[in-house]
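Recap quiz, item 2
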Amino acid sequence: MNTRTKDDIAAAIARDIAGEHPDGAYVNLGIGQPTLVADHLPDGSGVVLHTENGMLAMGPAAHGDDIDPDLINAGKIPVTELPGAAYFHQADSFAMMRGGHLDVCVLGAFQVSAGGDLANWHTGAPDAIPAVGGAMDLAIGAKRVWVMMTLFDKQGTPKLVPTCTYPLTGVGCIERVYTDLATFAVGPDGVRVLEVHGIDVDGLVERMAPLELHLDRVVGSGTGR
Amino acid sequence: MNTRTKDDIAAAIARDIAGEHPDGAYVNLGIGQPTLVADHLPDGSGVVLHTENGMLAMGPAAHGDDIDPDLINAGKIPVTELPGAAYFHQADSFAMMRGGHLDVCVLGAFQVSAGGDLANWHTGAPDAIPAVGGAMDLAIGAKRVWVMMTLFDKQGTPKLVPTCTYPLTGVGCIERVYTDLATFAVGPDGVRVLEVHGIDVDGLVERMAPLELHLDRVVGSGTGR
Amino acid sequence: MTARICTGYDEAVAGTADGSTVLVGGFGMAGMPVELVDALVRQGAADLTIVSNNAGNGDTGLAALLATGRVRKIVCSFPRQTDSWVFDDLYRSGRIELEVVPQGNLAERLRAAGAGIGAFYSPTAVGTPLAEGKEVREIDGRTYLLEYPIHGDLALVKAHVADRMGNLVYRRTARNFGPVMATAASTVAVQVDRVVDAGALDPEAVITPGVYVDRIVPAAQEAAA
Amino acid sequence: MTARICTGYDEAVAGTADGSTVLVGGFGMAGMPVELVDALVRQGAADLTIVSNNAGNGDTGLAALLATGRVRKIVCSFPRQTDSWVFDDLYRSGRIELEVVPQGNLAERLRAAGAGIGAFYSPTAVGTPLAEGKEVREIDGRTYLLEYPIHGDLALVKAHVADRMGNLVYRRTARNFGPVMATAASTVAVQVDRVVDAGALDPEAVITPGVYVDRIVPAAQEAAA
C-alpha cells in the first residue's frame, strides 16, 4: 500500500500554499505535525510564518548555540528569527489571527465533520484536563484553515465524519483535509475527494461509509489516472 | 478686584497636582488654557505629560529649529520630547486614557453642572459644526478630571450651573472646577466652595444664585482668612 | 500576500472603486499621506466615504479631495479647524454627510475592525448627544454604549521607513492613526520616506508588521522616477 | 504615579492581600517572572486567583505557588503540559478550580480590562463547549460571544530592560502576555534584566509605557544586594 507519510502530506500542503499564494503567504502552522510543512516550502516561496505566541517571519527550529529561551514557537520549541521578523504581544498576535489577516492556518485534528467543523482540543474523556491554547482562535481566524491528520484512528475509525462526536473547536471553519490516504474539500457542499493515495476510490467510499463522498474531481494514484 | 489670571489658575492647578501626587503624576492637559499648567509645575514634581495624539513625557512647546512637524500636541502645536518619552498609536493612547491610567486631566469648559456634568464641545448653536475630538474620551477617562475656566461668561452668566444647558461632553465626570474667582468641588454632594479670590463669599453666593453652594470649607483672600 | 513596492503613488491607489470607504491616516498634517490622497484625487473614484480624524486643512490633500465633490460622507472626530474652509462650505451647503465620532471611539472602532471584534462596549459619550440611537448597557455598575467596527476598503497611511517585507516604523506623533488603520482595510497603501532591506529594521521595534501592508511607495523612488 | 525601583523581589509583591487576582506573565518559561512568583510564595497571600497562559511547569515558579495550596482558582488557556504535574494533581483531586479560556480571548479580555472596554463580542469558541453560559449575538451575519474584561489586583511581569520612568522593552517571544497584563492590574510589578536612565531607551521602541508600571526589580541589583 502506497499511503503518504507525514512528510508527503506536509509536502502536499506546502505545494498548495505556494501554488495558491504566488506572491507569498502568511501562514500559521499548528503545534505538532503541521510544523513539518515548513521544511517543504519551496525556495523563494516567500511564505512568512506566524507563531501565535508573538512573531512573524519565524525561522526553523534552533539547535545548539542558537537556542534562546526567549525565542520559542507555540509548541514551546526553540526556533530562529528570519530577516524581516517582527515581534508583538499576545493581544496583537491574536488580533492579527482573529481579524483574518493570515492566509492559511494548518492544524491537527481528532475529527473533522463533512460541514467543516473541527474537533482538536478535547477527547471528551471525563478524566481529561481541558486545555485549549490558541486552537479555537486559530480555527476561526485565518482566511483558509486546513487540517493535517491520519484519515483513520488506531481502531480504523474514520476521523472525517458526518458529525463530530468529540467536543468542537470551531464550527464550519475547515476548508480542506489532508490525510495519508486522501485529500478532501469539506464545507457547506459536503465532502469532495480531491486526491487519493494508495487506496482506490471504491475502497475509500466503503471505509468512509456512511459519510457521503463527492467523487467528481478525484485525481491521484488510487484512481490510476 | 483681585481676581486670578489664567496664569494664577494654572499655578493653583499645578500646585494641587504636585501636592496630591508627590511621586509624580501622569497628567493630560486639554487644548488651550489648560496647557498653561505645564509652565507652573514645580521643578522635580516628576509630573509626566500625556498628549492623546500618542505620547508620554511631552516637553514644552518647540521653537525655531526645534520644530518638527511630526512632533505635535493635541492642539497641533509643535512640542518637544523629554528623556523617558514613549510614542504609541491612537488606539493605545485612548486605551491608556479610557482605562483610567492617567491621574489627572485638566479641561476647559463652556459649562459644568453642580453634579459634575461637563459641557465643552458644542454650544448647541444650530449653525455650529459639531467637532468633539478627544473631549468625550478625556472627560470620562482620567482618575480625576478638573476644569479650568472663567466663572462667568461675557454676559456675566455663571458657567457653573445647576444643570448644563449646552450639549454634554460627559456625565458626572468633573471633580473640581478652577476659576478666576473661586475654586469648587463638584459632584454627587453638590457644589462646595474651596477657595475664593477677589470676591467675598456673600457676593459669590449672590452671583451664583440659584446654585446652592456649600461654604463650610472656604479659604482664600475673599474671606479675609 | 507580501507587500508590493510600487513605482508611484498612482499605482498604489489604482482600482479604487466608486462607493469605497477610505481610511486616511494623520492627525492634522502629522502622518497625513498627502501624496497618496493627491493620487486618489487623480484616480477619480466617487461616492466615497472618508474616515479620518480631521476633515482637511487648507486646499491640498484631503481638502482637495473633498473639493472634487466625490466624497459623500466623512467620519471624523474633529472636522472644524481654522483652515477647514473646504469642508465647512460643503457641510453648510448640505453637500457632505458628517458622522462625528469621539477620537478614542474612532481609534477603537478601527482597531476592532482589524482585530475581528464584532462590537464593543465603550464608556465614552454616555449621556451625550453622540449616544443617540446607540445601544446602552450597564456592566458592573458602569454605563456603556455599543460601538461597531469601522472597516475600510482602502487605507492610506504615511509611515517613516518600510522594509521589503512591508514592516513599518513611524516617526514620533505622526504614528497616530496609521497602525490601526493599516489593520482595518482590505487594501493598505503606505507612503514612506524610504524602503530598506528585510533585516534592516529592529524586529523589536516594528510597529506595523508587514502582514497588514499591501502597497508601498517610497518617496525617494518617486523623486527619482 | 511614577514607578518605584525596588531593592528586591519581596518588596515588589509586599502587601498582596488574600483573595487577590494575580496576573502572571509568560508563555511556558519565556517571559515567566519566576523570581517574582517565588517572592509571592514567600509573601504568603492565600485564596488567590491566578491568571496565566499555563498552569506551571516542573516544581518551581508558578508550580511552587500552586503547591502551597493557596491558589483557589486558575484562569488559563493551556494548563495541561508534560511537566504540569503539580497542577494536574490539584485538579484531579478537586483542590483547584479551573477556567479554560482560549488564548486569544484571554489576551483580549486582559486588554479590555486595561483599555476601559466594558465587554466585547468575539467570534472565538462559538458553538463549542467553552461557549456555555455566554451571551450569543449575531452581528453582520457572523455569530459572536460576549466576553468580559479580566482585571488583576497584581500583575507579575518579566521584561528585558526598564528605564527609570518605568518604560519597558521585552526580548523576542518573551514579550507575550507582559504588555497586556501590565495594563490590566491595579499594581504592576516587573522584573527586568537591568534598569537604565531615562532617555536610554528609544521612545519609538518602548513597548510598555511607564504609566502602567508601579514596581521594578532589576536582576543586577538583586544580585548585588
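Residues 6-220 of chain B form a domain with the Glutaconate Coenzyme A-transferase fold (CATH 3.40.1080.10).
Chain B is about 15% helix and 25% strand.
End of item.
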